[in-house]
Specification:
It contains 11 helices and 26 strands. The protein has 465 residues and is an alpha/beta fold. The protein folds into 3 domains: 104 residues, Rossmann fold (3-Layer(aba) Sandwich), CATH 3.40.50; 213 residues, Rossmann fold; 85 residues, GMP Synthetase, Chain A, domain 3. Strands 4-3-5-7-6 form a 5-stranded mixed sheet. It starts with 10 loop residues before the first strand and ends with a helix.
């Protein structure tokens, strides 16, 4: 799919003081895949480094199946997953050697090494299985998304088309590689022959933006939490980076107020702010809001990506033809995954989705065909007969309390709000009781040290529950 040798001496990566050409990437990727030696399952312990990405590229092009795992995954959870899927090889930072008692190092490149199982059994893989990714919000559960070569290729080409990514782009790695949004940035830019500036610095740190400026980066990708943090730093009140051409947002719904603020910022500073919609189960992207329509369609996640289409269905599964009528959002496209895996044996399964994905999101469609996500099927509670969207409650509280360190969870008999500042408890309760007309006995305010989040910035609601 990537064939990095196509771009010869063009720069693929900049990492610290070193630049990697596409020719170097091609050679390194080939050496790693040759060290694996056959089509099999390889666990890739991810970092935003050239060696890690070279391993991923080499495996995809050699039809070896990489399974991407975050380097920060809890050690016991990591061992549990290894026991379930039993990869024959692991591509990981060399420091991982002490955690891999059942594996022996066979190859190394820079700070990474290939470890082969001391005793392994062949793994049966579906012919078109290309990649395994964790499901959105996963915290070490064995449920993985099975992606095909067609999934990767079609979604990569579609994103390149609607964002207009060319070989002149320079994207900074603001998101982790094992997160589908972060991986899509890598996929699209390497496929287009563009340059990646590799870093694991937090986007709300000064060094991150110094690197962005020094390397003349042209794009930034972020999830809602990252934009909330940038808003707290008042970045929209300052001049934009002079080389910035595009900011993209996905990984959850941005509040309409914040979407409007960054849209206005982009128009004022002459770059594009593109809101996108996606999921691991759709390889990465399903929808996007064209920047030309952003001002008139605030709060919308947009239209289907090239090659895909949306549909809304009611509780009985009947398509909804009327506008402004909420229903479950269904997506159709060649980027819809093959299905899930929860055990090694599932890697032999074929295509179980046939290009159709029930997203679990509740959405509406306006008169111009633009879609608006209004909630999640599983993020609703019914309190005293009143159906309530927990995402709406959370957005209201964040706006009223001017904080991003807040989350809502609960059940039909108790709304639970989590804050990190004890001074906000009384105000939060008053807003819920007075604005939402909820009985005080059915609302609980909890003060915790921090809101649990995944490495991609998504709130881990299961941990709150």
């Amino acid at each position: 799919m990537f064939e990095p040798s196509r771009f010869g001496s063009s720069i693929a990566f900049v990492e610290g003081d070193r630049s990697w050409s596409y020719a170097e990437l091609s050679d390194s990727a080939a050496s790693i895949s040759q060290a694996v030696g056959r089509r099999t399952l390889v666990c890739v312990v991810c970092s935003n480094t050239a060696e890690c990405i070279a391993g991923y590229v080499g495996m995809i092009d050699a039809h070896i199946v990489p399974w991407l795992v975050g380097a920060d995954l809890d050690e016991q959870l990591f061992k549990n997953l290894m026991g379930i899927y039993r990869p024959t090889h692991i591509w990981a930072p060399q420091v991982f050697s002490e955690k891999l008692e059942d594996y022996a190092q066979t190859f190394e490149l820079g700070g990474y090494a290939l470890f082969a199982a001391k005793a392994s059994e062949p793994v049966e893989l579906y012919d078109d299985l290309a990649l395994l990714m964790s499901t959105s919000g996963s915290t070490g559960t064995p449920k993985l998304v099975r992606l095909s070569y067609e999934n990767l290729r079609s979604n990569t080409e579609s994103i390149i088309a609607y964002l207009g990514i060319t070989q002149s782009e320079r994207a900074i790695t603001s998101l982790p590689l094992h997160y589908v949004y972060g991986l899509s940035v890598v996929n699209t830019h390497l496929y287009a022959g563009a340059c990646l500036v590799l870093t694991e610095l937090a986007c709300y740190s000064g060094p991150f933006w110094k690197l962005f400026s020094a390397q003349n980066c042209t794009s930034f990708a972020g999830v809602p939490f990252m934009y909330e943090m940038l808003d707290k730093l008042k970045v929209t009140n300052k001049p934009a980076q002079p080389t910035l051409k595009t900011m993209t947002q996905a990984g959850g719904k941005l509040s309409p107020a914040l979407q409007a603020k960054f849209t206005d910022f982009a128009r004022r500073e002459n770059f594009k702010f593109v809101v996108m919609y996606g999921a691991s189960e759709a390889t990465a992207r399903m929808g996007y809001l064209p920047f030309e329509a952003a001002a008139d369609k605030q709060g919308s996640m947009g239209i289907a990506i090239p090659g895909g289409r949306f549909e809304l269905v009611d509780a009985d599964g009947t398509p909804i033809e009327t506008t402004r009528t909420p229903g479950e959002l269904i997506y159709y496209g060649p980027n819809v995954s093959l299905g899930y895996a929860i055990a090694r044996e599932d890697l032999a399964k074929g295509d179980e989705n046939a290009g159709r994905l029930a997203t679990g999101d509740i959405a509406e469609r306006d008169e111009d065909g633009f879609y608006y996500v209004v909630g999640r099927l599983k993020r609703f509670v019914k309190m005293l007969g009143k159906r309530m969207n927990l995402d709406d409650v959370e957005r209201l509280l964040k706006e009223e309390l001017a904080t991003v360190e807040l989350a809502c969870a609960g059940s039909d008999d108790l709304l639970r709000v989590f804050v990190t500042d004890a001074a906000l408890t009384d105000t939060a309760k008053s807003i819920i009781v007075e604005r939402l007309n909820i009985n005080p006995r059915m609302c609980e305010i909890n003060v915790i040290d921090e809101i649990p989040k995944s490495s991609s910035g998504k709130t881990l609601y299961a941990q709150l529950q």
